[in-house]
Amino acid sequence: MTLLGAAEIRALAADLDVTPTKKLGQNFVVDANTVRKIVHVAEVQPGDRVVEVGPGLGSLTLAILEAGASVTAVEIDHRLAERLPATAASHGVADGALTVVDADALRVTELPGDPAVLVANLPYNVSVPVLLHFLEHFPSLQRGVVMVQAEVGERLAAAPGSKTYGAPSVKAAWYGPWRLAGTVSRQVFWPVPNVDSVLVGFHRDAEPRGDEALRVQTFRIVDAAFQQRRKMLRQALAGVLGGTAAEASLVLERAGVAPTARGEELTVDDYVRIARAAEADAPE
């Protein structure tokens, strides 16, 4: 197998009349060492079933396939989706190793083969929604490494109490722990972006924190807490925990959370306890 080089990537784009667009968050990786690094950090093994979101012209796709994995690639750009199988075949990819799904990743709810690993260079403008969507809809995903804008990666991996900790941090942590796994130079992209990129990795917890109803309730509370993050929780959560600060305080106390705390101080498990306490308080 061979990987794509910078000259071939530009030639492919010209042949397809593809100009990378900000609207689709397209910044193609043109450096073979970088895509191999991503695959290495993701610990892709022969036989792994990998899903890739936004394969573009196929540089990362080929690196994943080179490691002996099978890949399901979800691509929103019809021209790119149509060309990818031919690119793979011309670089020595075996029949059946690559499946291309021509679709918007945010609308995909079924994938062939129950992929266990997510590896992707995610478009900056939809990276968090795509990650949360895939973790919600594909419980077969056990781990992954994605390349995202540095600010987004830092937010996903942030700990309670830090400046970057927010609703995405808590929602991502619902599924398991996240970590920053490396930096990526701007110069490996075409076109060169005006932001820095990082690799961020996750592992799904062996046991889920709760059912879908509890997840929805927890996320609703998280959103309310961070929409007014400067306020104490008894005020910020009044609207979702009874309607008044006094009623919210009662629920928070039952959950073992100080009503005077602020949203950025709480772990995901604190939010789950609040959701459970609110559930217990709900009229039948």
Summarize the entry for a quick read.
The chain has 284 residues and is an alpha/beta fold.
What does this structure look like?
- The chain has helices spanning 6-16, 32-41, 59-66, 78-90, 127-137, 150-156, 167-173, 212-227, 233-236, 245-254, 268-281; strands spanning 28-29, 49-53, 70-75, 98-102, 117-121, 143-149, 178-184, 189-190, 197-203.
- It folds into two domains: 6-203, Vaccinia Virus protein VP39 (Rossmann fold, 3-Layer(aba) Sandwich), CATH 3.40.50; 212-281, rRNA adenine dimethylase, C-terminal domain (Helicase, Ruva Protein, domain 3, Orthogonal Bundle), CATH 1.10.8.100.
- 39% of the residues lie in helices and 16% in strands.
- It has 284 residues and is of the alpha/beta class.
Side by side, the strands of the main sheet go 4-3-2-5-6-9-7
**How many domains comprise the coordinates?**
2
The fold-level CATH name of the largest domain is Rossmann fold
What is the N-to-C order of secondary-structure elements (H for helix, E for strand)? HEHEHEHEEHEHHEEEHHHH
**Helix-and-strand structural type:** alpha/beta
CATH architecture of the largest domain: 3-Layer(aba) Sandwich
- How confident overall, as mean pLDDT? 94
The first-level CATH class of the largest domain is given as: Alpha Beta
Q: Could you name the ranges where pLDDT drops below 50 across 5 or more consecutive residues?
A: none
Output the number of helix runs: 11
CATH homology superfamily name of the largest domain: Vaccinia Virus protein VP39
Report the sheet with the most strands, covering strand number, pairing sense and barrel closure.
7 strands, mixed
